[in-house]
């Protein structure tokens, strides 16, 4: 079932790319495996799936230790500074950088491991009080601040759009984030490689792809409903 779901979602992404005149190879599907057992991840490996998303650092660490080392684990959840050590050498990218203090901790841990950590800046593009992330207005200056950290590389932007019944309601937010992404890219800031736009989840990923997403994060659409017990 997981494999069939993955193929269905991938097919919908490819269709959205065609509608938007994009190459489907431009869009990475991250299978969000948070709260799901290792066995469900393993079901997808024969399909050549490499990109998985995790919300909790400890869970990412545990799965990393037992699964093939060619998998790419994306840290997509809110990251506390005291948990950075669990993800720094295991995650391929941190999608949720939203404060200088968090960036400083990532810098320290990355320097210890002698690596450069790819990060995305989390933008609260819809300005929801319940969500983490910077406002659109704050983001360009924040990106410039992050560019000073030698062991970080800003790769782009991420957002979690509102949960809506009609995916079309989020089109304006995805379009606004894309425009912000293009604006920052045009500034040619040193140590900033604006190439990733992480937006779109199970209920709205097709609209996100039509509006320029390079990475979509789909969990329920692939693995089914989550059990948070």
Automatic annotation (TrEMBL):
PANTHER family: PROLINE SYNTHETASE CO-TRANSCRIBED BACTERIAL HOMOLOG PROTEIN, PYRIDOXAL PHOSPHATE HOMEOSTASIS PROTEIN. The modification N6-(pyridoxal phosphate)lysine is found at residue 34. Residues 26-226 form the Alanine racemase N-terminal domain. It comes from Marvinbryantia formatexigens DSM 14469. PROSITE patterns: UPF0001 (PS01211). Belongs to the pyridoxal phosphate-binding protein YggS/PROSC family. Keywords: Pyridoxal phosphate. This is Pyridoxal phosphate homeostasis protein. Its cofactor is pyridoxal 5'-phosphate.
